[in-house]
């Protein structure tokens, strides 16, 4: 489609940071990554939304297989990643050319939150001990 940004990327008219390409899909970095790793897996055929995939079309299965390859490429296939498709405006879809998001690498954020909670628990215990010590004197 002439006015579709992902078609333009697929045709090479708009640059992208490609990480995978085969006869059915391309995968490239999201322009505004929401995670340390944020890859879009995009079928080469212009299909506007998941609702428009023709019956018997195995494109989603292929997108899943490519996600596995890309995740392995980035070393997150074992540690974990998220794969999702936004469908229509209510589902958060902004680009109307079917694509799946592969996101990963937020472990550091989770670790930070866990460390902060552990510090808060320790701090409460410490304050409790000091107060108890003062009362018993
Ligand atoms: P959606 O909200 O449609 O599921 O996701 C569209 C995604 O495409 C967004 O995460 C957005 O950052 C990304 N995006 C939009 N325009 C471009 C572009 O020109 N290049 C690349 N690489 N990503 C884009
Ligand atoms: Zn398109």
Index terms:
single chain; 137 residues; alpha+beta; HIT family, subunit A; 3 helices; 5 strands; binds guanosine-5'-monophosphate; binds zinc ion
Describe this structure in words.
The protein is of the alpha+beta class and 137 residues long. The chain folds into 2 domains: 101 residues, HIT-like (HIT family, subunit A, 2-Layer Sandwich); 32 residues. It contains 3 helices and 5 strands, in the order H-E-E-E-H-E-E-H. The chain has a 5-stranded antiparallel sheet with strand order 1-2-3-5-4, with helices on one face. Strand 1 and strand 2 form a beta hairpin. The model has no long low-confidence stretch (mean pLDDT 91).
Please outline the helices and strands.
Elements: H1 5-10, E1 18-21, E2 25-29, E3 37-43, H2 59-73, E4 82-84, E5 100-104, H3 107-135
Antiparallel strand pairs: 1-2, 2-3, 3-5, 4-5
Bound molecules: guanosine-5'-monophosphate and zinc ion.
